[in-house]
What does this fold into?
Amino acid sequence: MTGPADPQLGALAALIGRVAQLLAGGDDPAARRAAAVNVEELRAAVAQAGQGGPVAGFDLAQIGAALAVFAEWLRTPSRDTEVRAERAMSELQTALGPLVGWDPAREDAARREQYRREARAALDEIFPDKPEKR
It folds into this structure.
């Protein structure tokens, strides 16, 4: 697979990938701090790209503001910052359409399926279908 032709887009895609990978690892404080640094880099790249105004119809100021809220939540997780980050991401989805890789319903379904598999494996280990022959 080839990367984007524009080096800036490639760098943005790499940053987004790193943030997603760090956050997929669970609620690790070190990973959250690393993701916050990456989000700040992404925010700076968006700000630089948007100095000439909207790009391709996207309000980069709105995207930058949402990224700032998201980075704040990563640095200082609390219920308040989480709610603000969720609201900022929802507003971006409304303005821009679905965000790449951001599908809470699909992620919740996948997480529930993983829990089922793990529970089934644990139960199968405790209660095997066939008793052992002696």
DSSP finds five helices and no strands in the chain. Residues 104-126 form the longest helix (23 residues). Confidence is low (pLDDT under 50) at residues 1-5. The radius of gyration is 20 Å.
